[in-house]
Amino acid sequence: xxxxxxxxxxxxxxxxxxxxxxxxxxxxxxxxxxxxxxxxxxxxxxxxxxxxxxxxxxxxxxxxxxxxxxxxxxxxxxxxxxxxxxxxxxxxxxxxxxxxxxxxxxxxxxxxxxxxxxxxxxx
Length: 123
Known about the structure:
The protein is of the alpha/beta class. 17% of the residues lie in helices and 41% in strands. Strand 2 and strand 3 form a beta hairpin.
């Protein structure tokens, strides 16, 4: 096997415009694709420079249930500042909490998809 990375992760959403505002305006992701095509809109976002992008899959773009994705870990250099920014934007954040591997917090996007923030511990 010669797999180098995941191309994209699907985040099922009910409203792509609402999801876009969250991922772009709150999380600071960049739009990497926004194409109208049958049967819907191919919309992808990613942190600047990331290899793996997130497909905000709306109605008609597969058999996905909005809010069903869990366990997406986003690395950050300052989990505390990012949690404050999320809270200011009206997002409920759990944490951050200290763990042997770093400081970690969790939150959900507007559709209920579960994401986590991690600032890794320096060893």
